[in-house]
Amino acid sequence: MSTYWDAYPNFVHNATAPLRQEFDLLAAQRGWGEQKYQKEWKRCGMEEFSHYFGRDDNRLAGWQAMCAFVRANEVPDSITKCKQVLGKTVWVNIFDLVDAKRTGKPVKKHPSAKALRRYSREEEKIFPLKKAKENPFLNVLLIQMF
User: Domain of life here (predicted)?
Assistant: First the structure.
């Protein structure tokens, strides 16, 4: 599966660096203004999430892998139960999920939706709602941000 970086063959990409760090280097190299930066940042997040986690929500193994990756307290034996665990007991930032895959470090977990909301706003790591709703894995991780 292709990655966001494939569209920029002249950019020397470090696949183990945090996503924002690499994206900021690319944006500076390309001279993007604020509007282009924001548009591309959203596209980058979506494409990289799909690259690392896929879109196939019909496979139990994919849902179980997501539960295991976020270190959920349990890895259920059904898709429905996996969705419940991910949507009601695990609070992680979507951009941080991608960073965890890239860097090999554990994903940062938050004690509540409120804590995740505050962190996401402060760090400006708010995943685009419309795009997130298109991916079943992302959709289940969404919380109310505003």
Answer: Eukaryota
